[in-house]
Amino acid sequence: MATSILAHASPDRRYILHLVYDGSDDAPLDAFERFSGTRLEVRLVKARNVFAGAATAYPGMPPVSFLRLALADLLPNVPKVLSIDPDMICLTNVAPCFDTELGDAPMAAVVDLAMANGLAGEIKEGRPNREGSKHRYFAGRLGLDLQAMGRYFNAGLMLFDLERFRREGFFERAQAFVAAPGETLRWSEQCVLNAFFGRVYKPLPDRWNVLLDPPRPRDYGAGGLALIGRAGEARNDPAILHFNWKTKPWLRAFIPTGQAKTWWAYALAAPVHWRLKLREPLATRRLVRALLEPSVLVRAVRVRRLLRARLASRFRRGD
Asked: Is the pTM of this model over 0.90?
């Protein structure tokens, strides 16, 4: 993810990656040693995770994901931030997304088309009010009405107005919401954010968070032709690919997608020492397999050319 940001970085902008984690040492910075001096400055933000015991029904999200709810306090001098999941690959410059004018909105995000399809499926099958349905969960646990349910956003990419979050005490309010009795949060902090901002956030174009699971546009059939077309349009012109759920190429059993080769190309081209690349979760066998794939190598060479220009473009303090 960091490599993809740097590869498409604007030559006249400086980028700061706040790497938030709840570890006890600075080991994660080892992987970013060769980013030093580039236009992507990496800052490690160690945090005590007050949400470590929060219950969630989503097994794919570690407790550290809840720290998104604390970003305003963890980054006290940062006015706004673009939160990007580590399982994303940026195919263009993220600066225009960061520059989005929020107006009166506290944040911006992309509608979760997969969730919209799931909600449409419940209505189509006549089960929106059945026990365990998404509709009942959204209404009962998150307090969302039908309009807000249709706007439910994915937390993979979000633009936060941190000054407003601090002013309105969002961190404390989020803690209270997570601790409140009720149904277990199904999709971790994503549900918390939707409960607070689902009605008022600013929608971003779908291309800024293209979910790869479901893997095909026709899998959005429950939402009708309009949703199929919307998903297809985003896939045809993606700004950011999101290897969500089981489409992560480094998993032992992942859902194959045509975009997996793109992920491996960025992984191979990353300015990271090979001893780190050979560690889990990549694994030597899968990395060698990617090296032997001609189309992956061609893409990796292209990425390296982009990186070479950025790696040579050292920023000066004050840029």
From this structure: yes
